[in-house]
Amino acid sequence: xxxxIKKKQEANAKLDARHKIESPWTIAFRRLKxxxxxxxSLFLLCILALSAILADVITPYDRDQINLADKEVRGKVxxxxxxxxAPSSNFILGTDELGRDIFTRLIYGGRISLTVxxxxxxxxxxxxxxxxxxxGFYGGIVDAVLMRLTDIIMCFPFLLIAITxxxxxxPSIFNVMFALGLLGWTSIARIVRGQxxxxxxxxxxxxxxxxxxxxxxxxFKHLLPNVxxxxxxxxxxxxxxxxxxxxxxxxxxxxxxxxTPTWGNxxxxxxxxxSLQNQWWLWIPPGxxxxxxxxxxxxxxxxxxxxxxxxxxR
Amino acid sequence: MYERDPKASDVLLSVRGLKKYFPIKSGLTKKTxxxxxxxxxxxxxxxxxxxFGLVGESGCGKSTxxxxxxxxxxPTEGEVIFNGENILTxxxxxxxxxxxxxxxxxxxxxxxxxxxxxxxxxxxxxxLEHGMVxxxxxxxxxVVSIIEKCGLSGYHMKRYPxxxxxxxxxxxxxxxxxxxxxxxxxxxxxxxxxxxxIQSHVINLLKTLQDDMNLTYLFISHDLGIVKYxxxxxxxxxxxxxxxxAEKNALFDHPMHPYTxxxxxxxxxxxxxxxxxxxxxxxxxxxxxxPPSGCGFHTRCPKAMAICSREIPVFNAVGENHxxxxxxxxx
Lengths: 314, 331
Prior knowledge:
The structure holds 2 protein chains of 2 kinds.
Chain A: H1 3-17, H2 24-33, H3 36-53, H4 55-58, E1 68-73, E2 76-81, H5 102-138, H6 140-155, H7 158-169, H8 173-183, H9 186-200, H10 203-211, H11 215-251, H12 263-266, H13 273-278, H14 280-308
Antiparallel strand pairs in A: 1-2
Helix pairs in contact in A: 2-14, 3-5, 3-14, 5-6, 5-8, 5-9, 5-11, 5-14, 6-9, 7-8, 9-11, 11-14
Chain B: E1 11-26, E2 31-47, E3 51-55, H1 62-69, E4 77-82, E5 85-86, H2 92-98, E6 102-105, H3 119-129, H4 136-149, H5 166-178, E7 184-188, H6 196-213, E8 216-221, H7 224-230, E9 233-238, E10 241-247, H8 248-253, H9 258-265, E11 315-319, E12 322-325
Helix pairs in contact in B: 3-4, 3-5, 4-5, 5-6
């Protein structure tokens, strides 16, 4: 071999050794960063999450504090709640029908809505992944039983069941979370099962079998990392759904109960025509925030789906 | 009849009467309406340290044979004797132990590597699973040594499969299979998916590793040239059965079975002035779900006789270590 060729090979080897290692996750994140709309959504969600965490610090009043002011009633000066006051420098989004600061309650409401969404989606993912991977991996009778169970739960009309649960157990934040979690896992179970069914036939699973890898390791190390992408996408979109459903339930008075604020029960103010026409600050801010949050989660989910799709080139 | 001692000392793996039928199910009740006879009674021996080549057209049952030997598919019938023991009687625990001695290399270097694991994890996983290493340091050393043996570098360990080319990926597959230091490796079309230039690299790597680690190969391929280069003995399969089996030079110089003769005549000539007769077979291979009566090849055989459609030919010795299943040579 001539000197020149040798030198070139050495240079190539050096170049190769300096190659930057990129895991499939890094590549996906790099692709996500190019999606401007998704990044804006992510930014908005970060702000929301941060404000929910720091609610105690950034809010000017206590959550349930009823603000009073001296007022003259029939010649006497009395301390009365400042009810339904329009936004001013004291109350930047005004006060509600009991005299509480709307901005403060909005931030705390975000905390509740996000928590409910997170816990519900976490429950959905845990149950869905467990059911879906067991059904897909073991197949046969296990698959048949688990999938029929999934079909049955899918047939339940969600709102009806949720309202029944609330009627039986009483409205509370925990009942909302559990109703959402225990009824919403079916689609993720189906997705995971389908993915595992197709992955199981790939040669790397046959290789794992030939290497004598245990079933538990096959599921957790080989199969689940490969279905993470659809799980993440589903979880993101599921957050939007859970927040929306929680709002609906709370609006109907079937979810989180006052005085705990959520965007849903704050929008109850819109039930009166007078408020709807004259007191926009009661219902527009919570409605707008719900809209922004749900929209952001959906756009981020879309972006994640594109970024995580291995068939899309960089 | 094929009669050899399956427990002879120089034989590592013997197959006797191996059959694999896939049931065809149809209808709502999943009633079995028939069988695809993918492998229908195989007999052969592989000597320790040697390579047995299995050739045949696609769909003839080569890959099914390879997978059945490792019990990745459960055979319908027959015996697989490895190290003097019939492994088909093994329970799960013993089968798991056996995994350290028998390995397989697959055809597709893309789908056979888990894209979410690094090369180090892929190669080292089985070592951890079987408790063959005591410390992280030992694991690292063994993984590095095996991937270097397979022509990669130690720093490749932390990379993911998508960062490698097809040939490099196949080297990772080889490293994964050999990390356990097996005695017997099934190479299932191990080079068919690669470029011709890379094929030769990988084939030579397999040969070097065989000498280094005293490996025994079952080399499955449809490429006669490659099989001739790497094998010591060759079996030609047709429709789930072995048509002819011989030492490689005997097979290439004096093919006996009409199917082997037709196959060999299809190899492109190496010199334009070489005179070679082309035997062109008519039609396609019959479906293994509905094989023809008698000899499976009689529908396409240029030398078919009346008896061929009636009786299945016996797998007989026609020379030293040369076996052929054809009525032409039946006494």
